[in-house]
Amino acid sequence: MKRRTLLKAALGSAALGAGAWWAARERLQEYSTAGLAFGTTVSLRVLHDDEAGARAALAAAMRAVQDVDRLMSLHRPDSQLSALNRDGRLAAPDARVVAVLREAQAIAQATGGAFDATVQPLWLAATGRLGADTALRRVDWRRLRVRDDEIRIDTGMAVTLNGIAQGYGVDVALAALRAHGVAHALLDTGEFATLGARDDGQPWTLAIRDPRDAQGIAHLLAADGRCLATSGDYGTSFSADFSRHHIVDPKTGVSPQELASVSVLAPTGMQADALSTACMVMGTERSLRLARALPGVDVLCIAKDGSVRRSEGFASLQRQI
Q: What is the C-alpha to C-alpha distance for residues 42 and 87, in angstroms, rounded to an integer?
């Protein structure tokens, strides 16, 4: 999996208040942890008034993230996803795998198949391990059957959760922090989420990278409690002009040509993650229409020519670079 969004988080240090409010804020200290999952470094940061409680919360959140990776990694032969792809059937699946696959199916339906968890054969075709025509015949989210007690795919099909598992990782990390009483946090699993505010009482600040400059910032926004995910043609590119990359249209097997990146704000990390991939396939106009139709969803589309379109909710959170 890939790290797709540049994060800028300003903890701040200025005292913006006084009296009881500031006394309460003053007791908060920063604690953080980092670990490996999803092929990247996951970092979690909290503000809390008790070190032991903060450390326990961070440990629980990291375990939750790494458990998701162990269940859903394509690169672990002992993962449940690998077992499903190997055998075509997964009996007694973990409830977390069922939940993620059901959300993947719901987003596939909402996007007309622009997001499709069964696209793994197209990756095999892109890397020369499978013929393109054969791969296309093996892609169809409607032939992925998900039940509480069993998951099945047709012979030759394969599932990837690379476009949704990192988002789920941020969801389970958030849940773990909340369960331990953490009210202020910044989470980065490759997708991003926040709780509360920085130590100066201001919203956390997130930055979306320029798709043509790994050190450049295309958009700053004030976090509003929703999750943020970005997909871009720069993640894994097979051509110098970014015309062939890791995101492909499940119906054609070809990389979409309009957009360089799409960022999505959504109520959950899973939704933001999967929709960012789907919107790359759908293009700007369809993505903006979808955002208007889905509660709590906003999109920022950056075209290959550098032009930017954003939904109203995204524009309202913009900060000056």
A: 31
Residue in the structure block whose two tokens are 């008790």: 50
The architecture (CATH level 2) of 74-152 comes to: Orthogonal Bundle (1.10)
Closest by CA position to 278, among listed 292, 269, 290: 290
Task: Give one DSSP letter per residue of 104-154, joined into a string.
Answer: HHHHHHHTTTSS-TT-HHHHHHHTTSS-HHHHHHT--GGG-EE-SSEEE--
Report the amino acid identity of residue 317: L
Confidence category of residue 21, pLDDT binned at 50, 70, 90 = very low
Banded model confidence at residue 25, pLDDT cuts 50, 70, 90: low
How many whole angstroms separate alpha carbon 73 and alpha carbon 244?
A: 24
Average pLDDT, the chain: 90
- Supply the pTM of this predicted model: 0.91
Which residues, other chains included, contact 180 with Cβ-Cβ below 8 Å and sequence gap of 6+? 53, 56, 57, 60
Q: How many residues does the chain have?
A: 321
Percent helix, strand, coil in the chain, to 5, is 35, 25, 40
Using DSSP's 3-state secondary structure scheme, residue 64 falls into: helix
The three-point CA angle 27-188-52 to 5° equals 35
Local structure of 230: helix, strand or coil:
strand
30 by Cβ neighbours in 10 Å (0-12 / 13-18 / 19+) ranks as middle
Instruction: Tell me the β-bridge partners of 230.
Output: 263
**What is the spatial distance between Cα 205 and Cα 296, in angstroms, rounded to a whole number?**
19
From 278, 39, 314, select the one nearest 163 (Cα to Cα).
Answer: 278
CA distance 103 to 99: 6
Run of H or E including 36: strand 29-37
